[in-house]
Every structure is written in C-alpha cells, then in structure tokens.
Amino acid sequence: MERASADRPALELLVHGVGGATPERMLNDPRTVRIAGDDTAAVFRRADDVTADTGPADDRGRDTPVPEAYVWSNLTSGNGTRALWLLLLPFMVVNLAHWMRPPAREDVRAVRLYGLLVRLAALSLTVLLVAAACEVALDLTAWQCAGTTACAERHSWLGFLSPAVSDGGWWSLPGRRLALAALVPTALVGLLWYLSHRTWRAYESQEPLDRAPEPENGPGHTALGRPGFWYGRRLVARLRAAHTAAGLLTVAAAVGTAAVREDRRPGGPALLDGLGRLLEASLTAGALATVWVVCRRGRSEHRLDRRVDAHLVHRLPSAALLLLALTLVYAGWERPDWHSEGRLPGDATFGGIALAQGALVIALAAVARVLHHCPRERSAAADPSGATAVERVQLVQQERCALRGLGGPAVAMLACALGGVMSGGVSQRVSDWLDGTGTFLDGPPVLLTWQASVIPVLLVVLSVLCAALGRQTWLLTWAEQDAVGREYGVAPGDPARTRHVARARAMATLTDRGPLLVAVVSTATLLLGAGALVGAFGTGKTPVRAGDGAPPFVQGAAQTAQAMGSWLIGLGFVLFVTWGRRAYKDASARRTIGILWDVGTFWPRAAHPFAPPCYAERAVPDLTWRMAGWTRATGGRLVISGHSQGSVLAAAAAWQLKPSDRRRVALLTYGSPIERLYGRWFPAHFGPAALAALHEEIACWRNLYRLTDPIGGPVRLTGDDCGPQVDREPLADPLTYGRTEEHPLPAPILGHSDYQADPAFAQEREMLLGRLRPELPGQRT
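The line above is the sequence of Integral membrane protein; the predicted structure tokens follow.
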C-alpha cells in the first residue's frame, strides 16, 4: 500500500545562481549527501534527510519540507584553462543573436529567414578567424618574414625557411613554406572541432524528458516548452561539420591562391595551370556545399530528434581535409622561378568578408523590424505613481523590448566587430613583433591595419559613454536620498548612510541602461567599419598601410592609432585571460561579470557550433527529471526555489514538465533576471505573454527582489490566490537603517546575495507550501 500524498513530506528544490554555491551553504548544514548526479552537477540532501521520503511513516508525514540542493556550478566554473573559452567570445555573441529574435507575428518564413541570416553571419566569423590565422602564419611569417633576409636573420627559428639563410634548403621554396605554415591554421580548426565535440559529449548529451508536444495555440506559446528544445544534437553536429569544412577550405584557398597566381603568369607550365583551375573549381564546389549545409533548416524542437546526418557529419570535413592535402601537394611542387615578394592577396578576402557581414547585419535588421511585435500592457505593478526615482528609471527602461526589436542585429554587429578587431589587432601585433623597425615587411592587408586603428577610437567612445552614465548615476543618487529617508522613517538621518544606500540603488540601474550601451557601441562599430572599408579601397588602389594617400594629418593620426591598437590588443589579450581566469576561480568575480557569461552560455548552440557549451542542456533535463519523478511518486507538493540564474533554469524546467505535473509545482524566485534581462533581450521566449502563461499553468509563483540588486527585478505579473501580485514589495536593503535590538551591528547592503537572510523569504516559502497542501487526504490505494 502506498501512502497518500498528504502523508508525504513536501520538497523544496533549491537552485543556486551565478556565483555558484556549495551544498553545505545552500542547505545550512555541514553534513550533506549526494543522492543523485555526478561530479559535474548533482542533487544533495542533509544527512538527516536522506530517508525522509522513504523511511518510517513518522519521517514521511512531517510538516517541514525536505530541502534539496541542485548544484550546477561545475558546469560553468572549474580550472583556469577554461578562461581560454573567452577567446571564443565572438562565436558566443553571434549565437546570442539567434535567440534575440523579436516575437513573431505568425510569420514562419520570416522566422526561418532570421535564423538563416544569423547562421550565415556565424559562418563568416569562422572564415574570418581562420583567415586571420592564415594571415599571421602564411603571409606575415612564412611568406614575408621568411622570404626577407633581414627579418629571417632577426628570428633564428625561421632560418630553415629562408632561401638566403638556409642556402636554398628544401623548405625554402615559397610553396613549401606556405604548405608547412598551413599546419598552424589547420591545427586551429582541428582544435575547434575537438573542443566542440568534446564539450557536447560532456555538457549537452543528456536527453530531456521525452513527452508528447503540447498544442501551440495562444499568444503565450514559447519554444522553451517543446520536447526537443534542450537537445540540439543533430543541428550542432551538422553545423560543426560545415564550420570545420569551411575552416579547412579557407586554409586551402589561402595556400592554393598564391600558387595559382604564380602558375598563371605568362610562360607558366600548362600542366600546373590546368591543375590550378581544377583546384579552384573544387574549392568553389566545396564552398557552395558548405553554405548549402548551413542554409538547411535549423533546429528540430517539436520532438526529441536523436538522428544524426552521418553522411554530412563525416564526409564533408573529410572531403575538405582531402582537398586541403591535395592543395598542399600542389603548392609544394617545385617552381624554380617563384620568389616571395610583397604580400599574399588577402586584401580582397578581408574586404569581401567585411562587406558580407555588413550586408547580413543590415538584412537581419530588416527582418527583425518585420517580426517586431512587442506590446506591453501596464499592470498594477507598473503604476509609476508613488514610485521612487530608481523605480521610475527601471519602469521606463522595461516598458519596451530591447532596442525596439533590433537587439539581435545589434548584437550580431558586435560579434562581427569583435571578430574584425581581434583579427586586425592580432595581425598588426604579430607584424610589429616580426618587424620591429617597420622597414622589412609590408605588413598585413590594409583593411586589417584600419581595423586595428579603430581600437583607440572605440575606447574613446566607451569612455565618453561611461562618463555620461556616471553622471546620470550621480544625479540619481542625490534624487534617491529623500526616498531612502522616507522609507526608513529617519529623515534626514545619517547623511553618509543614506548616501550609501542611495548609491547602491542608483548603481543597480546601470543594468537597465544596457540597451543604450549596445546601441552606441554597435552603431559606432558599423560606422567605423564602413570608414575602414572606404579608407582601404575608396581611392581605387590598394595602399600599403593605413592612411597612405591621405592628407598628412589623417595619415599621421591613422598610423598613430594603428600603433596604439597593436599594443592595446596585446594588453587586452593578457587582461582578457586574466579576468576570465579570475571569473572561473573566484566566486566574488563571478558575481560581477559572470552573469554576462552565464546568460551567453545558457542558450543552446543553434548558430555557431564552436561557441562555448550550453550548460542548460544538462541542467534543465536534470531538474525536469527530478521534479517529474517527485510529483509522480508522491502526488505533488514541490516548491522549486531559484536564485538569480537558477530562477531561469527553474522556469525553463517547469516549461518542460507535462501540464499535469506543472500544476503541482510552485515557483519561488528571488534576485531573478527572468524579466529584467531575459524578458527584454529574448522577448520571443521570455516575453510578457510567455511569463503570464507559465504563471497560469503552475500552482503558484512568488518573486522577491531588491532595489539594490543589479541583476534581479520584478516580473510584473498580476497575482492569483497567492496574492494580488506575483512580486512582493521590494525587500528592504539593508534590513535596518541603524542599530536595533535585533541588529545591534550595522546591517550590510546585500544587493544580489543572501535573500534567505530576509524574514520575507521564509514567509513566502511557507505560504507556497500551504497553497500546495491538499485540504482533504488523498485516496488510499
């Protein structure tokens, strides 16, 4: 005989947020036991609660809930080598653009076109990265430096490649030098393929709960509830094959183009000329096949798709690798009269990539405007009357979708800009390192030197924007001081204490000004990129360096900015890796900069297969299986309690449950970015209609937030039996203004952390458990 659900204990499933947490801290007990999971992600209980639902009847019928902690911090943190994933930042950013699609007006073709344009932009980033590696390894190192006696003598490790230093050794021929140097970008493509395949097996290979799809009717439909949303194995494998092939074909084109140009000189061997033309045709066919694979339909989310396109996954990269090998053999054929002069023909390549990326972003913006439909009805929680200055700022900023539906194109522009700036900066830095005096080498293509030159200009734009935001924050701090005194009833109170609280509230509003930052930076990069193209090709002839042919003032400014950009990219690389390593190893650093990384890696790899892995494809199935198993075994009484990013995981897991199980679950969120960040930047998935539908389908939802929290905020939904609003009134932070008997020492400003320290947390949890408790005992079987 099985006891009724009324005799079963309730379950409180705790999900931590950005900074990560230990099970001992989450459960407030030094003795914890892992009851499910592995070293990557697991569910823990206190040692005294291990048999709470399977032990004696007295334990099963207790009134207090059984707390469980789901710990997923190892999915996004670990050793310091993961900081190198930050080098894949452009891939992650363009993948974000895929999910920032505006809410569609039932226009399936426009939705598919939006995804196609993002996938093509992602493919262009792979080609750009590999082309930049070819520029560094093939052009600057093997062709220019090794082919110049003075430069080769300065770098002894290049001596065996130089015709003058090695006295005509076997590797001194230009084609053989290029073939040997091609191993570097080839190894880079292989590394990206390996990381993508390995991380998928480690993080994203967990199958979600298999169930029948729900009818997609009504405005509250979201793709997060589809059975196959968190299992993108087929698409990732297909895109991985296409991007790997694209990278290998880029290397083959870089090597083969130089050899073909040499064979087409008057008097060149007819056999090699014919082989070169056949090689060009093969490369073109391979490029068209790769683009066709990327253009195929995207994700299959309506069902759990376990198939893999084996004929594409295995054959396409293998064919590209074979074509690359034939190209290297062709380039290494002996050509006695071939000498390396000038630089390889890369100007047209990088110019074409920049033009293609600009056109894709503009087309993406046009499609986004067609899809844009983001209304927001004011609720009682959004009534500005009586609101403080900070609440009014948050309300105004959240009354619309980010950038009026253009968030995806703006972020795609940022991804392309990151790729261009990194390519130009690294190429210029390597050129300056190889040729310290700047007299031996021609340097990288002029477009890359222009892209390196825009780095100081971008920093100036960012400095001006930060200064403007700092001034607004200072003014908001002074405007908020009166509200702080009124709320605590201490006006005028201690000026320093009041100013401290007001400053924390004002600083928290900087998150709501994110769209302004993205809009300014993306617009600046678009204009600067157009200026770089004009500077590189606007005169009708290709200059050697940035600013050549321009007036003396412009030429001097361009070359000064180019030198500064070269050093800044080196400094930026060191800082990038240092900050990334600290963010992975230091919990306090993750609380400040980790939210951006966690938002980026929350979404599946639907546009770029080389982006960092999606931890939610492991975490969401874990939570879904645990909740479904509990509700079916015990009949319900489950509260999933999510903090920060954990609240987003909790909501995503609730969407994955069957409707009958979903009605047995209550949701408690605190410090949640589910509306403040996700609702604005990803309106097609976390928009007001989707959140309202989730609220109606689960048993109850309560949300806690503070005005001093820079990440969490209200969800702005009307209430039900649990209360008039889903949001509780903003929690006091600090709990007390001065010293009291309960708080004899000054209370700290908690901001985004320690929501459990507020008495309101226990009150809301008890209310949710009471809402789930059945009024009559269940039927015994």
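Note on the example: Residues 5-76+615-772 form a domain with the Rossmann fold fold (CATH 3.40.50). The two ends are 6 Å apart (CA to CA).
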